[in-house]
Amino acid sequence: MNRSLVKPESEKDPAVLGASNATLRGRTLPKGLWGGEHIRMEVNAGQTQVEYDCAHGIISSKIVLDPRGRFVVKGIHVVEHGGPTRKDDDTRGYPVEFRGNVKGNNMRLTVTRTDTRELMGTFTLTHGQESKLFKCR
Asked: Which domain holds residue 112?
């Protein structure tokens, strides 16, 4: 029997093949600071913290780019306000979709509330750049 013609089981299994091909194709958003006007993103291994003027958010998954540098991930957006936290404040936030396109060190990001389809904003960010935020006090 010619062993060069026999493929290991993992090479025959389409699920394994698809998973390994996806890993080779998909690259993750570079870790670290992404900053711009009115937004700051701190990308870590498994989650991303987002800060806006008077709001913050979280993406609890890796951000994987497609071959053209695009991504779509779900997250949470929490509105902040000045002064003390009130008893009836909703600190759970609401669901949003982060839709981005990365070219080199630059990103264009659109944040949309998923339950109402309200556009929260469109931002331009640069990897390694500090942000310009105005926080509610």
From this structure: 27-127
